[in-house]
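Thread: Newbie trying to understand structure tokens

Hi all, I'm a second-year student working on a class project, and my supervisor (Dr. K.) asked me to get a predicted structure for one chain before our next meeting. I've only ever worked with sequences, so writing a 3D structure as a token string is new to me. If someone could post the tokens and maybe explain what I'm looking at, I'd be very grateful. Here's the chain:
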Amino acid sequence: MTSTSLRPAIEVSGLTKSFGQHPVLRGVDLKVPAGTVFSLLGPNGAGKTTIVRILATLGRPDGGEIRVGGHDPVREPDAVRAIIGVTGQSSAVDPILTGEENLRLVGRLLHLGAAETAKRTTRLLKQFDLVEAAPKRTGSYSGGMVRRLDLAMSLMGEPAIVFLDEPTTGLDPRSRRELWSVIRGLVSDGVTILLTTQYLDEADQLADRIAVLDDGRIVAEGTADELKRLAPGGHIRLSFADEQGLAAAARAVPAAEIDAEQLVLAVPSDGSVGDIRRLLDRFDDHDLTIGQLAIHTPDLDDVFFALTGNSSKGAQL
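---
Reply by user tm_fold:
Sure, no problem. This is what the structure looks like when written as tokens:
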């Protein structure tokens, strides 16, 4: 996830789209460096799939400037289609055909020729660990196998840019992690990935940069660590053995939040060693005994809830 290029693989400026009287995209700006994973994160209805459809030539924008691999998807759709692969929310796998037959069908649709289709089919079956399942009808595949085959089919044309629209929805944790490994392998080979997801851990694990989309606008963009610094909520959580200890600690740190039922004190903090040392020194002065100490730093869950639902301002890092 470290390869970059001087020219972005995807450039979007002022992208707008409405369906009837309902605006879905309200001026989206994006730059996706080549050879990286860029994640669009947002709630249902935020406009993630609409962006992917427009970039993949499956929809037309109302306004804005777009370049995918240097080409305009509206004016040069064939040039864009020649360099992209798409794995949508709905699988393109035919359940009646075998895994191998699905891949060969895509090869024929791409006019690759029999020899090249066979070569790429063999390679992709190995790459996605589907060799044993290749002669079986895909209707018998597990959800994870279907998603791997779906992604393999999108790679038959050896695209430079791949759009993954919520690719792990409905998969069990093991299958999700297997697909993550495949995605990392693609990026290490120089492929650019635009990933939409509702899974915060997925964006955290895979993305070089993340854009948070809400109500058709980018409300924040940056690395996962940069976004986490935007969210409030970092604190040190201290638990005590009895109410007397909790009350004494609360007097020592008036800014703390008290949970009397759990005998817990939450002290605002960035979680740094210096901050922890200063807090403990403060308690030592009051001869307090702490039962347990835990550090909570903001994660993408905090970012998501802090930023979505109010799109009046955006943050760029």
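A couple of things are worth pointing out once you decode it. The first strand starts at residue 10 and ends at 19. Confidence is low (pLDDT under 50) at residues 1-5, 311-317. Feel free to ask follow-ups in this thread.
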